[in-house]
Predict the structure.
Amino acid sequence: AKPAKSVNVEFHSICLQCWWVRQARYFKGIAAAPVLYSNRNARISPYLSSSIGPARKAALTVTRANAVSIVSQIRLDDACEAGPVHVAHQIWKKLELDAVLDAASLPERAKRLTEIEVINRLVEPGSEHSIRNWVSRTALPDIFREELPPINDTALYKNLDKLHPEREKIEQALAEKEITLFNLKPTIFLYDLTSTYFEGLCARNEKAKHGYSRDKRSDCRQVVVGLVLNQDGFPTAHEIFDGNRVDCTTVDDMLTTLDKRAGDSKGHTVVVDRGMSGKENLAAIKAKGNHYIVASRQPEREQFLAEFESEQGWEEVIRDVSPNNQFQKKSSVAIKRMDKADETLILCLSGGRAKKDKAIREKKEKRLCCKYCPEKSREVMRRVSSCRFGGYAASKASLIIFQNS
């Protein structure tokens, strides 16, 4: 009989052989069963016995103590995340997104970098600076079965520069795939804007300019991003505007972009917020053959104070609690409908609006009181609180305007 130490060494050698066999079977696409198991004795799976050799079969049976000793010496090096990135890669192939990028005349290197960036957004969203480290922790090189292009900040940013000029073709192709895949019939488009700022001078970015900052960073240059969604929440189009662009001046450009991305959008309904609900924009939407839903501005609400304060004609809206948040509390909402020649007005009273208006009034009261002498502060607060629109009913008011077909 061999000494215990030699048995351990022999058994360790067999473990390594079995591990390599299992790895070979894995990369050939064969699902390998567990190689070793330990009960009373440690044994080798039958289908691997032929690959070990007769000279080593004498060491197949060892004591349980020896098996535990060997297992304690096993360590895991260079573990890679495979499952999520593999699923994302298969979705990419199933949707034939390489063909979409081919139609945009992008080279093979740009397609691989684009896929890596998309998978990163799906699995572990991060900046371009973090993608290189993330890729090193995944099995993407093995899944792609090819050598990946160099991944660094410069390569990723330059790839985005290649995608941006071709965004019209890419977004149009993706919109067509969404309609076919999910059997969509887009009839409503929701349009809104946001901004993102940059640190530094941005000397080579022509669109980066100082403007109204939603991030409260008026000291930084920014760009304005416009996004259009359909009623199912799928992005349809986006545009990048100058950082000093005013919201209400972007609607006409958005309508033109929407026609290019979604095809003939006539007869659809466009939803915008009160910042873009000017008469010129509403006329532009109607000129394109579309309908609109907009929220009114403060002066328009004041025209209907009598209707807001009247208790007749209101209908309570029953709002269901979201199944994903059973403890969510919905604010009370009541509506009143008023028909005009070519528009339908929906007067709304909501608890949420009441809280917002109250917070705005209190903020203005505090600001005014700080400007006046202490002996006049009470008089200022009395004037603000006695304002007619500070009443209970009107403080909860909002107005929604629908264009009649």
In short: Residues 1-62, 388-394 have pLDDT under 50 and may be disordered. Residues 4-27 form the longest helix (24 residues). The radius of gyration is 32 Å. The first strand starts at residue 36 and ends at 38.
